[in-house]
Write a structure and sequence with these properties.
Layout lengths: L23 E3 L5 E4 L17 H19 L11 H20 L3 H15 L2 E2 L5 E2 L2 E4 L8 E4 L2 H19 L2 H27 L3 E4 L2 E7 L1 E4 L5 E3 L6 E3 L2 H18 L2 H16 L2 E3 L4 E3 L28 H15 L6 H15 L37 H10 L10 H8 L8
Antiparallel strand pairs: 1-2, 3-4, 5-6, 6-9, 7-8, 8-11, 9-10, 12-13
Helix pairs in contact: 2-3, 2-4, 2-11, 4-5, 4-6, 6-7, 6-8
Length: about 425
């Protein structure tokens, strides 16, 4: 996003943020850092984010005009691999939240239309599982083979809203009568694809928890042979933002099924995530890398790393990370209110330019903007906005529900607008 507020990579993906977190947060040193109440509020008064009816009406009108127009691009009919995540999932999320905000079944029908378009284009691969293969070069250390392979991230991103919608349908008698069979289909598909990635050796347990990796598999274009090395070191660990998005799929599956394995996988990843978050400036702020190695599989034979390690110059990736962290926190996993306080301080006190209407955010490590990302060195971590009066003001003043990054507007309206029976 040119505004630098919302990460383009996050486009339409929102954490399920709750209310009611008390904001009298204190670091172990006893120094308050998350001054979440407005300055003119008495200490200890919880901040209660809200949107007035006029704002909600305006946002929903602008959101609907944009999402209906953009839906004509029909990414669901053509994207494959990771592309189904970045270009299809934002619409599926938008349709899900559209129903939750309005109760209008038009949005369920749209979600089913797009989901079915993706599903019917799936390819049954040699190991018996369905996938959406796309072309990728060099999955192994220095391989030059061109593979056609599917992508766990893309699948996780589209499955999360499908699972959330299926869960809503199956728990609502009036919806289950009409859509129950479709909801069951989506849940079964999600379970099968979780099994697929397990079988292919994409999950690895490590010292601090567990990570998802990219194993070598796929159809080699030149020979049409199936290249597959399950549970070998011919793989690499996914970056943090991708791990967080897969973690949110795991939480959606746990919420819908209450099967412990999904919660366990999510918790194991976020234990690793927390272990990678470093404190700086005497413990006031967090900083972390885009990617870190997790095991021997992340090294080439000469000892060098397969991916680069450091802070990413595009701040949108960190907005995705924080969305996952907030989701984990609200599920009672790994992160504490002190962690949320430090994240608020990092985004508000270190990264923000102290202007509400023309808010800009610098890099998480304070380095100069990269020439390739001059407008997005940092971003508003909007998943934290409901927990801090200042971040909420920034969010409300700059949010554009008629943009690609604003496709989650119905979620904000449903959670913080005037109460109604929408989505019930």
């Amino acid at each position: 996003m040119s505004s630098g507020l919302h990460g383009g990579a996050a486009c339409g993906r929102l954490a399920a943020i709750g209310m009611g977190l008390l904001l009298a947060w204190v670091l172990p040193s006893g120094v308050p850092v998350a001054q979440a109440q407005a300055k003119d509020e008495p200490a200890g008064v919880a901040f209660q984010p809200s949107l007035d009816a006029t704002t909600c009406t305006d946002w929903m009108q602008r959101w609907k005009a944009n999402v209906v127009s953009d839906s004509n691009q029909r990414f669901c009919d053509k994207e494959m691999g990771e592309g189904i995540g970045w270009r299809v999932a934002p619409f599926l999320n938008s349709y899900y939240y559209g129903y939750m905000a309005t109760g209008d079944r038009e949005w369920i029908d749209r979600l089913i239309d797009w989901s079915d378009s993706v599903i019917k284009r799936g390819v049954k691969e040699p190991d018996g599982y369905i996938g959406w293969p796309w072309e990728i070069v060099g999955l192994s250390n220095d391989a030059e083979e061109i593979y056609h392979t599917d992508n766990e991230l893309g699948e996780a991103m589209v499955l999360a809203p499908m699972v959330k919608m299926a869960d809503k349908i199956l728990k609502t008698p009036s919806l289950k009568e009409r859509y129950g069979a479709k909801a069951d289909e989506y849940m079964q598909l999600s379970e099968q694809l979780f099994e697929k990635w397990n079988t292919r050796g994409a999950w690895r347990e490590v010292k601090d928890g567990g990570v998802w990796v990219v194993p070598v598999f796929g159809i080699i274009r030149e020979t049409t042979q199936w290249g597959y090395k399950p549970k070998s070191n011919d793989c690499f660990t996914l970056p943090q933002n991708m791990q967080n998005l897969i973690g949110e799929w795991m939480l959606a599956m746990y919420d819908a099924t209450h099967e412990p394995i999904y919660r366990e996988r999510a918790e194991m990843w976020w234990r690793v995530m927390k272990s990678r978050m470093r404190l700086r400036d005497d413990g006031k702020y967090f900083v972390w890398n885009y990617w870190d190695p997790a095991g021997p599989w992340d090294q080439k034979p000469d000892g060098s790393l397969k991916l680069w390690q450091g802070v990413h110059p595009n701040g949108g990736y960190y907005a995705v990370d924080v969305g996952g962290i907030v989701d984990a926190y609200e599920h009672g996993l790994v992160f504490t209110k002190e962690d949320i306080a430090r994240l608020i301080a990092t985004n508000r006190d270190f990264m923000w330019n102290q202007q509400v209407k023309n808010a800009r955010f610098r890099r998480i490590d304070g380095e100069p903007p990269d020439p390739n990302y001059p407008n997005t060195p940092g971003a508003l971590w909007d998943a934290l906005a409901p927990y801090d009066a200042t971040l909420w003001k920034i969010f409300a003043a700059n949010y554009d529900p008629g943009s690609w990054g604003g496709m989650g507007a119905p979620d904000w309206v449903a959670r913080f607008g005037p109460k109604s029976n929408a989505g019930q």
